[in-house]
Amino acid sequence: MADENESKYKILVVDDDADILTTMSLALGDLNQTVLTASDGMAALELAEQEDPDILVLDLMLPRRGGFQVLQRLKGKPTMKGKRPLVCMVTGNEGMRHQTFAEQNGVDEYLRKPFAISNLVEIVQGFMEKLDAGIEDAK
d(Cα 95, Cα 110) in Å, to the nearest integer? Predict the structure, then answer.
Protein backbone atom coordinates (compact mmCIF):
# COMPACT_ATOMS: atom_id res chain seq x y z
CA MET A 1 0.00 0.00 0.00
CA ALA A 2 1.33 3.45 -0.92
CA ASP A 3 2.49 5.81 1.79
CA GLU A 4 -0.19 8.42 2.52
CA ASN A 5 2.41 11.20 2.13
CA GLU A 6 3.79 9.86 -1.15
CA SER A 7 3.35 12.13 -4.15
CA LYS A 8 0.73 10.73 -6.50
CA TYR A 9 0.28 13.56 -9.00
CA LYS A 10 2.43 16.06 -10.87
CA ILE A 11 1.22 19.65 -10.87
CA LEU A 12 2.80 22.08 -13.33
CA VAL A 13 2.41 25.74 -12.34
CA VAL A 14 3.19 28.35 -15.01
CA ASP A 15 3.33 32.11 -14.38
CA ASP A 16 5.80 34.81 -15.41
CA ASP A 17 5.35 36.76 -12.15
CA ALA A 18 7.92 35.27 -9.76
CA ASP A 19 5.97 36.23 -6.61
CA ILE A 20 2.72 34.71 -7.87
CA LEU A 21 4.55 31.59 -9.09
CA THR A 22 6.18 31.15 -5.68
CA THR A 23 2.92 31.70 -3.79
CA MET A 24 1.00 29.23 -5.92
CA SER A 25 3.71 26.57 -5.84
CA LEU A 26 4.15 26.83 -2.05
CA ALA A 27 0.39 26.58 -1.44
CA LEU A 28 0.04 23.60 -3.79
CA GLY A 29 3.14 22.03 -2.25
CA ASP A 30 1.12 21.66 0.95
CA LEU A 31 -0.97 19.05 -0.91
CA ASN A 32 2.05 16.69 -0.81
CA GLN A 33 2.20 16.34 -4.59
CA THR A 34 5.08 17.00 -6.96
CA VAL A 35 4.93 20.66 -7.95
CA LEU A 36 6.88 21.77 -11.02
CA THR A 37 7.21 25.39 -12.12
CA ALA A 38 7.91 27.30 -15.31
CA SER A 39 7.97 31.04 -15.95
CA ASP A 40 7.33 31.10 -19.70
CA GLY A 41 5.40 29.17 -22.32
CA MET A 42 8.36 27.42 -23.96
CA ALA A 43 9.70 26.20 -20.62
CA ALA A 44 6.18 24.98 -19.74
CA LEU A 45 5.92 22.96 -22.95
CA GLU A 46 9.40 21.47 -22.48
CA LEU A 47 8.67 20.54 -18.87
CA ALA A 48 5.25 19.11 -19.77
CA GLU A 49 6.85 16.94 -22.44
CA GLN A 50 9.44 15.63 -19.95
CA GLU A 51 7.23 15.25 -16.89
CA ASP A 52 3.72 14.55 -18.27
CA PRO A 53 1.82 16.53 -15.59
CA ASP A 54 -1.60 15.51 -14.35
CA ILE A 55 -2.65 19.07 -13.47
CA LEU A 56 -1.69 22.36 -15.09
CA VAL A 57 -2.12 25.79 -13.49
CA LEU A 58 -1.54 28.13 -16.41
CA ASP A 59 -1.27 31.90 -16.65
CA LEU A 60 -2.82 33.34 -19.79
CA MET A 61 -0.22 36.05 -20.50
CA LEU A 62 3.23 34.48 -20.80
CA PRO A 63 6.45 35.32 -22.64
CA ARG A 64 7.89 32.92 -25.25
CA ARG A 65 4.52 31.23 -25.99
CA GLY A 66 1.28 32.52 -24.63
CA GLY A 67 -1.02 30.57 -22.35
CA PHE A 68 -3.46 29.80 -25.16
CA GLN A 69 -0.65 28.34 -27.29
CA VAL A 70 0.46 26.15 -24.39
CA LEU A 71 -3.14 25.13 -23.74
CA GLN A 72 -3.79 24.19 -27.36
CA ARG A 73 -0.59 22.17 -27.53
CA LEU A 74 -1.31 20.22 -24.33
CA LYS A 75 -5.09 19.95 -24.44
CA GLY A 76 -5.99 20.62 -28.04
CA LYS A 77 -9.75 20.73 -28.33
CA PRO A 78 -12.94 21.19 -26.32
CA THR A 79 -13.58 17.45 -26.18
CA MET A 80 -10.52 17.23 -23.92
CA LYS A 81 -12.22 19.21 -21.15
CA GLY A 82 -12.32 17.03 -18.06
CA LYS A 83 -9.40 14.89 -19.28
CA ARG A 84 -5.78 14.86 -18.22
CA PRO A 85 -4.02 17.18 -17.85
CA LEU A 86 -6.72 19.03 -15.99
CA VAL A 87 -6.17 22.76 -16.53
CA CYS A 88 -6.90 25.77 -14.36
CA MET A 89 -6.17 28.97 -16.28
CA VAL A 90 -5.38 32.08 -14.25
CA THR A 91 -5.46 35.60 -15.65
CA GLY A 92 -5.79 39.26 -14.84
CA ASN A 93 -7.95 39.81 -17.94
CA GLU A 94 -11.45 40.94 -17.06
CA GLY A 95 -13.34 40.21 -20.28
CA MET A 96 -15.49 37.17 -20.95
CA ARG A 97 -13.98 36.69 -24.43
CA HIS A 98 -10.80 35.12 -23.04
CA GLN A 99 -12.71 32.87 -20.66
CA THR A 100 -15.01 31.68 -23.44
CA PHE A 101 -12.05 30.97 -25.73
CA ALA A 102 -10.25 29.12 -22.90
CA GLU A 103 -13.29 26.96 -22.21
CA GLN A 104 -13.66 26.23 -25.92
CA ASN A 105 -10.08 24.95 -25.85
CA GLY A 106 -10.47 22.53 -22.97
CA VAL A 107 -9.84 24.62 -19.83
CA ASP A 108 -11.46 22.93 -16.85
CA GLU A 109 -11.47 25.91 -14.47
CA TYR A 110 -10.80 29.63 -14.90
CA LEU A 111 -9.62 31.99 -12.12
CA ARG A 112 -9.31 35.76 -12.40
CA LYS A 113 -6.44 37.51 -10.60
CA PRO A 114 -6.38 38.53 -7.89
CA PHE A 115 -7.84 35.39 -6.33
CA ALA A 116 -7.73 33.85 -2.88
CA ILE A 117 -5.02 31.17 -2.89
CA SER A 118 -7.49 28.92 -1.06
CA ASN A 119 -9.68 28.98 -4.21
CA LEU A 120 -6.81 27.63 -6.28
CA VAL A 121 -6.03 24.94 -3.71
CA GLU A 122 -9.72 23.95 -3.67
CA ILE A 123 -9.77 23.66 -7.48
CA VAL A 124 -6.62 21.53 -7.53
CA GLN A 125 -8.01 19.30 -4.76
CA GLY A 126 -11.14 18.84 -6.89
CA PHE A 127 -8.92 17.91 -9.84
CA MET A 128 -7.13 15.33 -7.68
CA GLU A 129 -10.49 13.83 -6.68
CA LYS A 130 -11.41 13.51 -10.37
CA LEU A 131 -8.07 11.85 -11.07
CA ASP A 132 -8.61 9.50 -8.10
CA ALA A 133 -11.97 8.57 -9.63
CA GLY A 134 -10.16 7.55 -12.80
CA ILE A 135 -10.84 10.05 -15.56
CA GLU A 136 -9.94 9.24 -19.15
CA ASP A 137 -6.45 10.31 -20.14
CA ALA A 138 -6.31 13.03 -22.80
CA LYS A 139 -3.02 11.77 -24.20
Answer: 12
At 63-97, the pLDDT tens digits run 988 898 999 898 877 677 778 899 999 998 877 88
Cis peptide before 114 (omega within 30 of 0): yes
pTM of the predicted model as reported, rounded to 2 decimal places: 0.90
For the chain, the structural domain boundaries read 13-132
Domain 13-132 in CATH 2.60.120.20? The answer is no
Please enumerate in sequence order all residues whose Cβ is within 8 A of that of 69, keeping only pairs 6 or more positions apart, or say none.
Answer: 41
Q: Do residues 75 and 85 touch, judged by C-beta distance below 8 A?
A: yes
Three-state DSSP class for 7? Answer: coil
CA pair distance 115, 8, nearest whole angstrom: 26
CA 35 to each of CA 11, 22, 80, 133: distance values in angstroms, whole numbers, following the listed order: 5, 11, 22, 21
The one-letter amino acid at 133: A
C-alpha R_g of the chain? 14
Q: How many CB atoms are located within 10 Å of the residue 44 CB?
A: 30
